[in-house]
Structures are given as structure tokens and as C-alpha cells.
Design goal:
Elements (H helix, E strand, L loop, with lengths): L1 H9 L1 H19 L3 H14 L1 H13 L5 H30 L7
Helix pairs in contact: 3-5, 4-5
């Protein structure tokens, strides 16, 4: 418990910044009109390719005996890939609405 409290004391500024970012993000997302929500979210999902690259780097740099890093990296690759693919699927469906219908 002492180590945890020391860690919190050493990283107190970072914790405040993360909490502020959470409230700021909720406030910004809450003010986005529903018409713009789908295009913004599909673009944000596509940006998660960075998560995939980061997870691959973490898995490549991890020791073969560090199962926690390998498992978390693998899960991050899977979830990041699902997020990117889902973003492109949503964008494709959204763009289908604007295409003219064939007779």
C-alpha cells in the first residue's frame, strides 16, 4: 500500500491531467450534433491504427517470458483491428446513403 501511495504522490500531476482530459472529452463529445457524430466517430476509429502499430511494437520489444505484455499486446492488436474495420464499415454504410439509386 505504501508503494501505491508513493506512486500516486510522484505522478499526481499526470493523474490530474488525465482526469481533466476525461471531463473535457465528455464535454466536447456531448456538444457534437448527432448529424456529425457518425462521420467523426468513423474517422476517430480509423485513427486507432496507431494503437495497432503501438501494440505490435510492444509485443516485438517484450521479453518472450513476459506473458502479460504479450497477452495485452495481442488483445490490443485484436481490439484495434476490430475498431479500425468497424470504422470503415460505418463510413461505407454512411456513404451508401448518399449514392444515387439505380433504376
Amino acid at each position: 500500500m505504501e508503494n501505491f501511495l508513493t506512486w500516486i504522490h510522484l505522478h499526481q500531476e499526470y493523474i490530474y491531467i488525465v482526469i481533466l482530459m476525461i471531463f473535457l472529452g465528455i464535454e466536447i463529445i456531448g456538444r457534437v450534433p448527432s448529424v456529425l457524430h457518425t462521420p467523426l466517430m468513423s474517422g476517430a476509429n480509423a485513427i486507432h491504427g496507431v494503437v495497432i502499430i503501438g501494440a505490435i511494437i510492444v509485443m516485438g520489444e517484450a521479453d518472450p517470458d513476459n506473458y502479460l505484455a504479450l497477452i495485452l499486446g495481442f488483445i490490443a492488436v485484436i481490439l484495434g483491428t476490430l475498431n479500425v474495420v468497424g470504422g470503415f464499415v460505418v463510413t461505407d454504410r454512411m456513404l451508401e446513403m448518399f449514392k444515387s439509386k439505380k433504376k
